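Record 1 of the preview.
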Amino acid sequence: MIAEIIVPLPIYGTFSYSIPKEMEDQIQIGSRVMVQFGRKKYYTGIVERLHSEPVGFEVKPIMALLDSEPIVRYPQLKLWNWIAEYYLCTVGEVYKTALPTGLKLESETFVSLNEDFEIPEGVKLSEREIMVMMLMEEKKKLRLSDIDKELKLKNTPGVVSRLLEEGLVNIDEKVIEKYRPHAETYIELTIARDDHDSLHEFFDRTRRSRQQEKALVAFLDLSCWIQPGVQLKEVSKELLLKTAGISPGILRAMIDKGIFRSVKKIINRYNPRGIKVNEPALLSKTQNRVLDKIKDCYRNQDTVLLHGVTGSGKTEIYTHIIQEILDAGRQVLYLVPEISLTTQLTDRLRKVFGDRLLVYHSKFSDNERVDIWNRLLTSNEPLVVLGARSSVFLPYASLGLVIVDEEHESSFKQYDPAPRYNARDTAMVLAQMHGAKTLLGSATPSIETYYKAQSGKFGLVTMEERYNGSVLPDVEIIDMREQRKKKLNSGILSAPLKSNLRSTLNSGKQSILFQNRRGFAPIVVCKECGWTPKCENCDVSLVFHKNSELLKCHYCGFTRPLPQLCPACGQNSIETFGYGTERIAEEVHQQFSEARIARMDLDTTRNKEAHQEIIEEFARHDTDILVGTQMVSKGLDFNDVALAGVLNADTLLNFPDFRSNERAFNMLEQVAGRAGRRSEKGLVLIQTTTPDNPVLQYVKAHDYAGYFNEEIKEREKFHFPPFTKVINIYLRNKDAATADRAAVIYAKKLREVFGSRVLGPEKPFVSRIALWYIQSIMLKIEANASMKKVKTILRQIYEQCASWPDIKSTQIYYDVDPS
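->
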């Protein structure tokens, strides 16, 4: 018997392994197995197919079967293959992303010192090799990755390889299991429940110790031991110690006496129980009509777009549909683009669905994600999963509905590493595989989605009014050229914005200020010689972060201190210009010292609870002004926000990309949607140097239809989606000249097949990232083209020139449907 195994590597196809006789009756499709790959590496593979066909070469045996039951359900493997085919990557790359790290055992390289080592005569070690040897003499044995962290060398594997050749170090591979189940200690009495004589004896034995007697009474109370007809409850050690108010030593003494025994049990980390639930909130007449229209659409179509203005009450409608699906015994996936949204939604949904709500996103630890995976894998119960894009990979038993909220968001698209998938589109395919319905929701739908809805491919339901009689906010465009010319502005704040911030504070309301740039100052320059700090690894300037006093690269993470003197001319003349969220928060605090100001960006939300803390503080009105990046624009719902300010709309509008207008309109309209969501009308102020820009005029009028009609004409004229499908092909190499030559060669080969559909090559906006020089080629193909056929052709073209020196040393990858 042969098993075709998927390994978590960027290599096309599956790999054949023989099944040992003792495993033949146990192994199943979807099971994890441990396999040797190459001479020394070991990986956790997934069984994709079982067969007894001859393979024509010698195969290695499977080393170990890790599961008695499959770790994935149908149709997960089918979805993985669709992603690999559509997004032009390998199924191994999909598997690596899909499965939580805790479920993937991998071998890790350990380096140890050869105790008998002597440096051979005539061999001179380099400075880097000496550094590794000194570290190994101190530590004796280290992971290869730990050597990297300790010494921060370039090409650590190369240095270790030379030491290995000289016999100075040894290398071995160890299989590392990353998942640690959560065990909890429970306390039990050592007698049967009906053994009253022994219970009396226990009281006699504890009479002299007041603390032990308290522990026994507390246990009997917590476990319902002496309540006839009531089921016994488990009592954890932690709960007993807390309730009885005793020390662990007292409990240990009672265990030694044979009164109690302790039992360790594996507990799912994500297992909230006993949450009080309420019925979904009553819908308004408008919301009920919308709900009925959605159900009508589902009679003929599997996917419906709910186009509702900001604050129209889409979430309440979602809640009612979810309840119906759960009542039918099926599961629901509720996708949101940002982790910050899961925070606010969790509280709202938990009140209705209680412990049937699971939350899943990347801020959870590996162990927590494995526990949620196992909960879904071992249960067919109706559950709601609220999560960011990675939640499309979970093992659902029977999906009945997929909701994609804020479906227009580019955050649904993964950029690096592969698979570069769009979670919205993947979720729709997942829904089809389960025979489920899909509901897309947005106030500003993506151009492609709205086009499909208008052409009848999707159902379309609109909500043009805000919930409970609220009205959309007024939008004012502020010309910053005039403000600066007349010297009316205070730093980045125009006079109207400053005035309205003051009146909003005085009225006890809240404000949101939006700037899509984090850090303190994006521009650092020497005013004498013009020196600007650049990243050592990327083709970008460094951004100054005042809180840490560091210059940082937002692409690779490189940091360096801000120099006191200019490294080029030696003068004390370094200045910072421009505004990031950190500087804005500081400046607003200087001008409104009495205001409570919070900042919400990547720097302030790095830990798991940070999103929740910032959002809850703002919701409780512990914060008056919230300064943030795009995180503050995405679907958050606050009662008292009267003012929203966009501090520099130009950074959104002036970007060299066919989607820049779409992104700008969506983001500005979404920021505007945070204001005046309850009874009082809100105000939105947008600062710009191009007040006549058509996108801003559409935002001012809240005119999505007008914007869409204009944009769709442009897309059709220049052959962009939805009229074509775009594939960006990237070539990267550590050598700039090689990358350039490879791009020219590859573009020429592509043109031989695709002709005028190929544009480029050209350098992208940032042409060097993390020491890789990048070139890009754009391929526009017909919207209805078969991606399977395109993948086959691209693979053939690559194989034709893979042995050519420039192509051989160049990495090539694809981005399908870039956002």
